[in-house]
Amino acid sequence: MTPLRVGVVGAGKISGQYAATLTGLADVEVTAVADLDRARAQAFAAAAGGAAVRTLDDLLAADDVDVVLNLTVPAAHADVALAALAAGKHVYGEKPLAATGAQARAVVEASAAAGRRLGCAPDTVLGTGVQTARDVVAAGTIGVPHAATAFMTTPGHERWHPDPEFYYRPGGGPLLDMGPYYLTALVHLLGPVDRVVGLASRPARSRTIGSGPRAGTAFDVEVDTHVTGVLQHAGGALTTLVMSFDAWATRMPRIEVHGPGGSLSLPDPNYFDGTVEVFPAGADAWREVPPSAGYVAAGRGVGVADLARGLAEGTPHRASADVALHVLDVMESLLEAARTGEAETIGSTCTVPAGVPGLVDLRAG
Using one digit for the tens of pLDDT, what is the confidence trace for 190-201? Predict the structure, then answer.
């Protein structure tokens, strides 16, 4: 098939991982890049094999761009996506789909009106970790799941990120930043969420940048940085969730799923692969599950290649806006539940994407 031509908007820290992946995929070709900092755009272009450096307007008008890869900060996700859709481009964006649910719904509606594809990270769920775990659940190995746990704890991104303020402003925080990896994996495993309860706190009102040229600079914290909740999935399973920028270490598992026939342990959903383990009922130890499904040797950007294949084959792409919008709705509802102290009913649902059929290599050659 003819490669899908990708125009990248935003050449910040995460873009390097995309460049490394996209240059090795058979189904996509990076043709252009735009960033407010031209030097960053030039560095990305060089890493991506010599893509053209353009202004945003020129990139959106370009005939050699089929899909806009939106790697801007969350506050700009909706504006860039809407502009790209208005220009007739498909869009694939970093998570979250937009800074708010209202903005995300506007982007979904614009995509439908334009007849263009809309995809959204995380595509880590398409790797061998989550996809192998899906196979375990689908095979009935642990029975019908009735519970899950998910833990993401870190002392905060300001230790390593040179410009971390956006993580601590509206649209940021541990839930909106890291929650999509965990919640998307849980939706793939257990289905959509019906209802949530939760609490949240903000132990520190300021943070200090720990690395880069601005090290030592203090900034205000505008969002809650420790969020905990319980999610009720449509199928009845209950997930206990902890997302925190206020913990130095933990021995808790990233994600575990429990059923009458045993327990299932997943690797960090921020990555594509890792060890999947199962503890069958009555066993005396965890057993490693060999990879059985997912994109192998994957990196950030395989969701764009999956979208390209969906376009070519006329099938839905797996890193869908449907799931991304529902996950954002769940996160906003959890934060609202924490604010009010009341349970929140989720106003949206989603279709769980089809699993990756077996082990698939998207790399060129």
Answer: 999 999 999 999
As for how many domains the chain has, the answer is 2
CATH number at residue 284: 3.30.360.10
Residue 310 lies in a domain: no
Q: Quote the domain boundaries for residue 90.
A: 4-120
Q: Specify the pLDDT at position 167.
A: 92
| 176 and 285 fall within a common domain | yes
Same-domain check for residues 82 and 220: no
- How confident is the model over 90-139, as pLDDT tens digits? 999 999 999 899 999 999 999 999 999 999 999 999 999 999 999 999 99
What's the predicted TM-score (pTM) here? 0.95
Same structural domain for residues 158 and 103?
no
Residue 365 clears pLDDT 70, i.e. is over it: no
Domain shared by 60 and 149, yes or no: no
Phi and psi, residue 315, nearest 5°: -120, 160
